Amino acid sequence: GDSVTQMEGPVTLSEEAFLTINCTYTATGYPSLFWYVQYPGEGLQLLLKATKADDKGSNKGFEATYRKETTSFHLEKGSVQVSDSAVYFCALMRVEGGSQGNLIFGKGTKLSVKP
Amino acid sequence: EPEVTQTPSHQVTQMGQEVILRCVPISNHLYFYWYRQILGQKVEFLVSFYNNEISEKSEIFDDQFSVERPDGSNFTLKIRSTKLEDSAMYFCASTTGLAGWLFFGEGSRLTVL
After folding, report:
1. What is the mean pLDDT of chain B?
2. C-alpha angle A70-A73-A75 in degrees, rounded to nearest 5
3. A31 — contact with chain B (CB < 8 Å)?
4. Gyration radius of chain A's alpha carbons
5. What are the C-alpha distances in Å from B58 to residues A69, B30, B31, B100, B111?
6. Which one of A45, A102, A107 has the shortest CB-CB distance to B48?
7. CA angle at A87 for the pair B48 and B61, rounded to the nearest 5°
């Protein structure tokens, strides 16, 4: 079945460091890919998305490119801030083949950014 | 900005009791979902709901669970007889269409003792 694998955390970085959180997926067809973020004490918020191969999603300085050849959707940010400390979830959505658009999540990667 | 709201934010209950978690999806959304996240684990799909009926459900969503949209604005998840392993954060989500991204509520934390 469809699945999402993302790098184990926690990830601890200093402010202004470069961030990469790896995400790979297994799916039939052409899923849409998402990154959701969960700040402490809050719900899940969409960070960015990409719906087809080679699409780049971007938001708040974060970027991820849909790579079909490597089935990956790695999250990157050039310079992290303390306020980026959160748990990041990679997810896919398959909308064909009878699926009703439900998301399949990775386990989440906790990011802590130190000043 | 429109948002999905959930109540209660935290509920503590005894094993075997019934629990109802409530959600108000965004008003023009058509698809509604419940997900759960057991502490330290993945966010897992429970059920999707469209046109006043369940459109898809996971293996987790057994006969102890039910969903309802009683009045056109609320979307509820009922657990008939709670078990210890039902302790989790339950997230409601909604979207306009199948290809849209999901908007999540802040979650309802259920603790079963």
Report:
1. 92
2. 135
3. no
4. 14
5. 30, 20, 16, 20, 21
6. A102
7. 25
